[in-house]
Amino acid sequence: MIKAIKTLYKGVIFRLKELNRLFTNKSIINGASYFPEYADRRKTKAIIFFDQFKNILKYGDVNDFYYLYGFDIRGLRDEKEYVDYAKFRARREDLMHRSNNSQVAILRDKFYFSIVSEALGFRSPRTIAVITNDSVYLFNSKQTISLTEFVQNHNIDSYVKLIDGECANGVFEVRINEGIISIDGESSSIDMFRKQITGGSFLVQEKIYQHELLNRLHPQSSNTIRLITKYNSNTDSVIVLPSFFRVGTGDMRVDNWAAGGLALGISTESGRLGEWGYYKPGYGLKTKIHPDTGIVFKDYEIPYFAEAKDLVIRYHMHFKNVHSIGWDVAITPDGPCIIEGNDNWEISVVQVTNHGMRKEFEQYM
User: Fold this and answer.
1) What's the pLDDT tens digit per position in 264-312?
2) Are 77 and 70 spatial neighbours (Cβ–Cβ below 8 Å)?
3) Phi, psi of 107 (to 5 degrees)
4) Cross-strand bridge partners of residue 175
5) To which H or E segment does residue 225 belong?
6) What are phi and psi of 14, to 5 degrees?
7) In a 3-state reduction of DSSP, which class is residue 249?
8) Which pTM was predicted?
9) Which own/partner pairs from 119-126 qualify as long-range (CB within 8 Å, at least 24 positions apart)?
10) In terms of DSSP bridges, do strands 135-138 and 127-132 run parallel, antiparallel, or are they unpaired?
């Protein structure tokens, strides 16, 4: 009873906060449409406000993907076919609590994930070291040295990642050659490197070089597939749900949507890209061609896609206690390489790049 009261109280407080956001954040009502071609069918500000008000009452939050889903255009999309993120999150957490979810800890910790991947024989970036403050643990030699000694005596071309970071937070490219450091392509120093890694533990992994076809899309960033898999305990098998592809833009070294990259639908049958690339709100709207390389997205074929699907299906069979996983997969010149797995796989981006996931949600979750 007390737990139910606390839950109700938290729900009321959160809704009040979201209502305050609705009344004070003008961009929620004045957002740019992702579908300007239907400007004559654009809803009025009053209707948009009422739509968001209803969403808060029903789900507890403002729908931050309202414009991406095209809900601001009358008759374009059926809102009933889409799953609100708050509902997805609640269902995912409920499923986790019902099962032994200890395996989720492996997915959320890049250090653990790299160890398990190597032990199981699944291809992933080679781990060079773990850095905590001024201490560097070397994987190959199994010894601990200082950061200064590491920089002076090791030549690496790598990505350094905050072990428990998400959405590209704490990820940067580091190259060390004869004691000379560059970070994200810019000349740096050991003091700047030390400052960059203060306040957490970081994994140093060998840089993955991508297939030429992905390099053509945007050579500055590692462009990856987010493949969504779901384990079915009734059949002891794994299926692939609608997925998406990410590509960086501008001077980005990462492809993450949250950092300004583009998200695109990808056919789970052919591995061909959809027509549109979508920006996260605040970075742009949508585009049919890459803004830097000029490559047309529609039907652009991603190599080794069948092999990538097979790889994540086989890997998920080792994580049967995790209901569904979003796998980030890089494509190298000789095949797929798993970067990481995510139990929180962002259903909202899947719906933006594919379609409303209500049917799949009710069937599988």
Assistant:
1) 999 999 999 999 999 998 899 999 999 999 999 999 999 999 999 999 9
2) yes
3) -70, -35
4) 157, 182
5) strand 224-232
6) -65, -40
7) coil
8) 0.90
9) 120/315, 120/318, 122/311, 122/314, 122/315, 122/338, 123/311, 123/335, 123/336, 123/337, 123/338, 124/337, 124/338, 124/339, 125/159, 125/205, 125/206, 125/207, 125/208, 125/337, 125/339, 126/205, 126/206
10) antiparallel
In the chain, residues under CATH classification 3.30.470.20 are: 97-123+210-364
Q: What is the pLDDT of residues 59-109, one digit of tens each?
A: 999 999 999 999 999 999 999 999 999 889 888 887 776 666 678 889 999
Residue 245 neighbours by CB under 8 Å, 6+ apart = 223, 224, 225, 226, 263, 264, 265, 266, 273, 302
Q: CA-CA distance, 214 to 331, in Å (whole number)? A: 8
Scanning the structure block, which residue is given the tokens 């910790």?
A: 109
Please check whether residue 129 is in contact with residue 136, taking contact to mean a CB–CB distance below 8 angstroms: yes
- What distance in Å separates the CA atoms of residue 174 and residue 108, rounded to the nearest whole number? 22
How do strand 201-206 and strand 224-232 relate by DSSP bridges? unpaired
DSSP percent split of the chain into helix, strand, coil, nearest 5: 35, 25, 40
The token duo for 2 is 């007390």
Nearest C-alpha neighbor of 271 from the set 317, 239, 307: 307
Is 354 in contact with 83 (CB distance < 8 Å)? no
Q: Which amino acid makes up residue 337?
A: C
Fold designation for 97-123+210-364? D-amino Acid Aminotransferase; Chain A, domain 1 (3.30.470)
Q: What's the pLDDT score for residue 70? A: 97
The helix or strand, by DSSP H or E, that contains position 55, with its residue range, turns out to be: helix 45-59
User: Three-state DSSP class for 354?
Assistant: coil
Between CA 304 and CA 134 the distance in angstroms is 40
What does the pLDDT look like over 323-360, one tens digit per residue?
A: 999 999 999 999 999 999 998 888 999 999 999 999 99
Say how many C-beta atoms besides its own lie within 10 A of residue 25's C-beta.
12
By three-state DSSP, how is residue 298 classified? coil
What's the rounded Cα separation, in Å, for the pair 294 and 301?
16
Starting at the earlier edge strand, list the strands of the sheet with 127-132.
143-146, 135-138, 127-132, 201-206, 156-162, 171-177, 180-183, 186-188
